[in-house]
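Reminder: ligand-aware prediction takes two inputs, not one.
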Amino acid sequence: MLPDQQLLRIPGPTPIPPSVQRAMSQPMIGHRGTETKELLRRVKPRLNPIFGTEQDVLLITGSGTAGLEAAVANTIHPGDEVLVIVTGAFGERFAKICEAYQAKTHRYQVEWGKAVSPAAIEEYFKKYSSIKAVFATFSETSTGVLNPVQALAAVVHKNSDALFIVDGVSSVGGVEVKMDEWSIDILVTGSQKAMMLPPGLTLVALSEHAWQVIDNKKQPPFYLDLKKYRSLDSTPFTPALPLLFGLEKVLELIEDEGLEQVFARHQLLMKMTRAAFRALDIPLLTNDDSASPTVTAVKPDDFDPEKLRSVLKQEFGLETAGGQQHMKGQIFRIGHMGYCSPADILQTISIIEISLRKIGNKVELGKGTRAAQEIYLG
Ligand SMILES: *Cc1c(COP(=O)(O)O)cnc(C)c1O
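Here is what comes back for the chain with pyridoxal-5'-phosphate:
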């Protein structure tokens, strides 16, 4: 392995484009001065198409979880009944946040690797009518599932007045989302996934309905009080300026490529990755219908994924993610979001093939790479 060469294929943090890296190394500016105001004014409106909303996208310093916590802390009163759709580790995290704010938390558990069925949630509302908010994960990073949030939003709004709150951390910027059209009330993402930035920034957008609930909330939190962030050209506390410098560059890259093309590229990366493992006869955790365009979970049946991951890392500097919680040792995950191209996937697959041979697996070299190449050629 070449020292200082890192092939980061985990589902976040993700690689940073060199131009973004350079933009972030600018000298500091005054956070209350005109330069910061102008920077915020240039950057914020350009986030709207990425969220699919006309609403302001708020920028908060903190990792993605800070945005998830803000969504709960600003809307939920102790004792409120909430429904959390748990399809993996990040759904479970949302449930824990709700519990920390003393919500009466109902979990709708879905087997890891499967997406939730909107019809099942519709049934659920027949039993529980006083739900104040429903929480869902768009791309469940722990399993590589993309949940049908558009259909879920429809079910929630048809059956209740509940807010529909979505963790979009590993999806926004890589997967099309139409927050306004689909009627998502709160949509959250973080900087270090499809947004091609280092960790440290969380982005939150809210519907009119969510703002009404928030405006009426007694005892708002302090740092995460979303009302304080409702300004186009200022932030209540010192913003993570390097991330804002980087964000401006990221937006330029996304606009140059074209948002539609960004989404299409993620679809292609997903298809190439899935085709490769299928050709190698290595099972995937999710089926095609519920596969996330940003992360793929592989569930081998004849080798230890941890053994493979260790060769990938030690010999090739290729970093992949293992399984979380009870999936530890059963799956490994490949992140293909943000600054990731077909060239990266071809490299990743070919390194995985050679490493499989290194751990004694009898795969045919090139078979997965070839399948990915064929997908690319269409
Ligand atoms: C990464 C991630 C988070 C946030 O994690 P942080 O470490 O707080 O940034 C939340 N939800 C999902 C789906 C994620 O992928």
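The first helix runs from residue 18 to 24. Residues 58 and 204 are 5 Å apart (CA to CA). We will return to this case in the review session.
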